[in-house]
């Protein structure tokens, strides 16, 4: 059993293991960094630390919304090596998911970009952080 | 027992010992008779052996043991040190360093047993001399068990340079007053050192609660044989077996009774006193300096940077209030932050000696390898630089020193022919110059043959034959081009594909520059100029559209306003300006950072940046002014963006990119 943060991107539900998440921040000024990938929005000053920010919606090809009161930056920590902020549309909930909640067919993700978990009648796309942060496991 | 927690300490200390081995062995080579040096070397090897043993690095331990035997023979006058022996000893130290590198990388010592070195060391002694190898090399190491108190006393003794011996004394079967006999032994031994343990206990011996054997553990500076002979000189002693206990061979047993029995005895109590005194002395010595994990210093540095940032923010706010008391407090805050910043910077400063110290050894090997004669003269080893810079200095300096030895200094005969002394001089010096540290590598060799460099440049197609009008400086610049070597034959030293271009790149990465002065027949001098620190620099803040960028002031030559019509176009759209009759290429910072340039202005602000001798003009929208900025890394996720060398946080909390001037001029 593992805890997942459930959040909204456009009109779908997504989940990310809370083990990866350090903080949830409100949207703040982002400084553009030249010559980076389109989805890298720049860097923020996170209490004195420079942290790059990725627009998760652009990265995984979800329709973009304008920033709102609900927009958040999830600060994730990649194996203690670096931190990255992920822009998402709205934080919804934190839930416990068990192995049984995961849809078997989507586990090896041949046709799906994400594993799908079923929870209280909701379908949650479970994000694999590695896919989001690195280029290798991109489009099929 | 899990030793991994001691690994860091082991590595640090082992490095120190290896360094001191190298240093002292170099000195010994000049004064082979100096007994004190041999003693010192012996002690380092001895301690190293013990440490390696404790950590379970058996190969390393065996090698140091063999080394120690040779040194012990030299110390006892049984062996004369010659250059052949020195060579083997130096190779041994290299092998030890290699072990250490493997340990740093993997946490284990690896499989290399260095048998050839062990054999070579043993061969020096002919056969393992018995008096030296008291506990023979081939036997597995014995563990001597003592209670913790005694173990600590033993360890203390080692660190003070004492030897620790264990004597098994057997009395004659006909001996009548056993306890009296034992008492004589105790007395005799105490002429030479301290008895720190006896088995059975002194009380039991006095009560004659023992057969004909007892054993004592002694700390002493005297040779083992001397003590043994003294014991044997007492009548009715049948046999005395003496063993030297080396570090790594003791362990503590947790028998409470032994502690009791030990503490009752007078000789032991005396030892306690001695040990305590010694302990206090060492405490005093060590408390003067503290080894600090560099990461902790980085945290401290970061916090100070934060303080500086928030200070400038408060300064900005203060302007709004215009209150005198408020202003005074802020001035006070400013003073404190500045001093704090200085203090933290000083903590990060380390003497360049850290890098320099390995060069004497390297140059010695080099002289032998090249068959040349030269002396390395170092000065200013105590000059301090931020440790981030010191750590990076090694490679460029090694290259320049090799260069001086290989290309600069002539063969001895050639030198004599040109009226110079047989032996050349290579000078390595460091000194402070304002906000810079300068490091020079100078040789009194043949100098750079500019004509030859020019020919080579033509050969490589870097220069056309009709372009003869070149200044000396321009010719020297060719040396810094990738893979440019004037050496005809590839030696062990040159031809490794590492050239002066690598030196130059490295130094420039550190925000410094290299300069060369050379005079034919007289010598060559490389001058490296480096900033004192990398963490905080002076920068010019500029804007393009609504973005702010920082350009390091050190790389700015000047700032000029240029009218639109003075920007000329040459060679398929390249923009240039003429400044004091010099052609300077122009770039728009907008385009460089991927924004649309503003073209319909009448006047442009051009920041002229330099990289070595090369100048480039950068058009910016507006200048915001100059200030101290704290350099922060963009982190691993964004590494490899060539144009940006880092980011900084401005007084209002926003982030600005720092431009890498080296990339602006490409």
UniProtKB/TrEMBL annotation, chain A:
Domain of life, per lineage: Bacteria
Protein's recorded name: Chemotaxis protein CheW
Domain CheW-like: 1-138
Taxonomic lineage of the native organism: Bacteria, Bacillati, Bacillota, Bacillota incertae sedis, Caldicellulosiruptorales
Pfam short name (any one): CheW
Species assigned in the record: Caldicellulosiruptor diazotrophicus
UniProtKB/TrEMBL annotation, chain B:
Residue span(s) of domain Histidine kinase: 298-534
Catalyzed reaction equations: ATP + protein L-histidine = ADP + protein N-phospho-L-histidine
E.C. code: 2.7.13.3
Record keywords: ATP-binding, Chemotaxis, Kinase, Nucleotide-binding, Phosphoprotein, Transferase, Two-component regulatory system
Enzyme class: transferase
Positions bearing Phosphohistidine: 46
InterPro entries: Bact_Chemotaxis_CheA (IPR051315), CheA-like_dim (IPR004105), CheA-like_homodim_sf (IPR037006), CheA-like_P2_sf (IPR037052), CheA_P2-bd (IPR010808), CheW-like_dom_sf (IPR036061), CheW-lke_dom (IPR002545), CheY-binding_CheA (IPR035891)
Domain spans labelled CheW-like: 536-666
Residue ranges occupied by any HPt domain in the UniProt entry: 1-103
Pfam families (UniProt xref): CheW (PF01584), H-kinase_dim (PF02895), HATPase_c (PF02518), Hpt (PF01627), P2 (PF07194)
Name of the protein described by the UniProt record: Chemotaxis protein CheA
Biological source species: Caldicellulosiruptor diazotrophicus
Top-level taxonomy: Bacteria, Bacillati, Bacillota, Bacillota incertae sedis, Caldicellulosiruptorales
Gene name per UniProt: cheA_1
């Amino acid at each position: 059993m593992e805890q997942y943060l459930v959040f909204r991107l456009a009109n779908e539900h997504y989940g990310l293991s809370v083990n990866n998440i350090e903080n949830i921040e409100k949207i703040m000024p982002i400084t553009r960094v030249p010559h980076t990938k389109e989805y890298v929005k720049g860097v923020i000053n996170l209490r004195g630390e420079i942290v790059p920010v990725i627009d998760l919606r652009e990265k995984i090809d979800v329709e973009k919304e304008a920033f709102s009161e609900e927009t958040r930056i999830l600060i994730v920590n990649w194996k203690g090596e670096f931190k990255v902020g992920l822009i998402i549309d709205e934080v919804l909930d934190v839930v416990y998911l068990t192995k049984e909640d995961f849809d078997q067919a989507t586990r090896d993700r041949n046709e799906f970009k994400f594993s799908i978990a079923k929870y209280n009648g909701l379908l949650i796309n479970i994000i694999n952080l590695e896919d989001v942060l690195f280029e290798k496991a991109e489009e099929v | 027992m899990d030793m991994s927690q001691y690994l860091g300490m082991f590595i640090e200390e082992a490095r120190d010992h290896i360094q001191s081995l190298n240093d002292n062995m170099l000195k010994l080579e000049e004064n082979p008779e100096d007994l004190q040096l041999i003693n010192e070397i012996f002690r380092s090897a001895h301690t190293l052996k013990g440490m390696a043993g404790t950590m379970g690095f058996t190969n390393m331990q065996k090698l140091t043991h063999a080394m120690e035997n040779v040194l012990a023979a030299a110390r006892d006058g049984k062996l004369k040190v010659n250059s052949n022996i020195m060579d083997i000893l130096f190779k041994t130290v290299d092998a030890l360093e290699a072990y250490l590198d493997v340990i740093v990388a993997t946490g284990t010592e690896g499989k290399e047993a260095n048998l050839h070195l062990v054999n070579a060391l043993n061969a020096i002694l002919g056969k393992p001399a018995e008096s030296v190898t008291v506990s023979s090399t081939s036997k597995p190491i014995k563990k001597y068990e003592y209670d913790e108190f005694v173990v600590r006393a033993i360890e203390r003794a080692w660190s003070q340079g004492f030897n620790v011996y264990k004597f098994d004394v057997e009395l004659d079967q006909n001996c009548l007053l056993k306890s009296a006999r034992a008492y004589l032994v105790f007395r005799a031994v105490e002429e030479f050192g301290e008895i720190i343990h006896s088995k059975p206990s002194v009380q039991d011996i006095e009560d004659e609660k023992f057969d004909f054997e007892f054993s004592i553990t002694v700390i002493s500076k005297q040779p083992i044989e001397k003590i043994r002979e003294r014991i044997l000189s007492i009548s009715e002693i049948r046999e005395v077996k003496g063993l030297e206990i080396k570090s790594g061979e003791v362990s503590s047993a947790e028998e409470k009774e032994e502690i009791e029995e030990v503490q009752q005895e007078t000789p032991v109590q005396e030892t306690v006193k001695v040990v305590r005194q010694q302990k206090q002395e060492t405490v005093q010595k060590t408390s003067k300096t503290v080894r600090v994990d560099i990461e902790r210093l980085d945290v401290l540095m970061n916090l100070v940077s934060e303080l500086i940032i928030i200070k400038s923010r408060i300064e900005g706010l203060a302007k709004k209030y215009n209150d005198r008391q408020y202003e005074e407090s802020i001035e006070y805050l400013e003073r404190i932050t500045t001093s704090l910043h200085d203090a933290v910077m000083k903590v990060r400063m380390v003497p360049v000696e850290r890098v320099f110290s390995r060069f004497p050894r390297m140059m010695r090997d080099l002289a032998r390898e090249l068959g040349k004669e030269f002396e390395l003269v170092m000065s200013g080893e105590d000059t301090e630089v931020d440790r981030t810079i010191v750590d990076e200095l090694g490679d460029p300096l090694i290259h320049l020193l090799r260069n001086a030895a290989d290309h600069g200094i002539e063969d001895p005969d050639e030198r004599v022919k040109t009226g110079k002394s047989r032996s050349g001089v290579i000078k390595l010096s460091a000194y402070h110059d304002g906000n810079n540290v300068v490091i020079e590598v100078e040789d009194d060799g043949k100098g750079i043959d500019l004509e030859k460099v020019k020919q080579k440049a033509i050969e490589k197609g870097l220069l056309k034959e009709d372009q003869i009008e070149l200044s000396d400086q321009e010719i020297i610049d060719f040396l810094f081009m990738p893979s440019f070597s004037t050496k005809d034959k590839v030696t062990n030293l040159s031809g490794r594909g590492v050239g002066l271009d690598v030196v130059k790149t490295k130094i420039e990465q550190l925000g410094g520059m290299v300069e060369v002065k050379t005079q034919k027949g007289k010598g060559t001098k490389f001058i490296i100029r480096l900033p004192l620190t990398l963490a905080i620099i002076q920068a010019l803040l500029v804007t393009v559209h609504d973005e702010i960028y920082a350009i390091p002031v050190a790389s700015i030559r000047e700032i000029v306003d240029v009218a639109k019509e003075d920007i000329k176009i040459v060679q398929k759209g390249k923009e240039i300006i003429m400044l004091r009759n010099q052609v300077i290429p122009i770039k728009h910072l907008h385009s460089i950072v991927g924004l649309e340039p503003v073209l319909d202005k009448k006047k442009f602000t051009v920041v002229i940046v330099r990289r070595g001798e090369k100048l480039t003009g950068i058009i910016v929208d507006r200048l915001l002014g100059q200030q101290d900025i704290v350099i922060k890394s963009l982190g691993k996720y964004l590494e490899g963006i060539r144009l940006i060398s880092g980011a900084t946080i401005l007084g209002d909390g926003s982030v600005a990119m720092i431009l890498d001037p080296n990339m602006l001029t490409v």
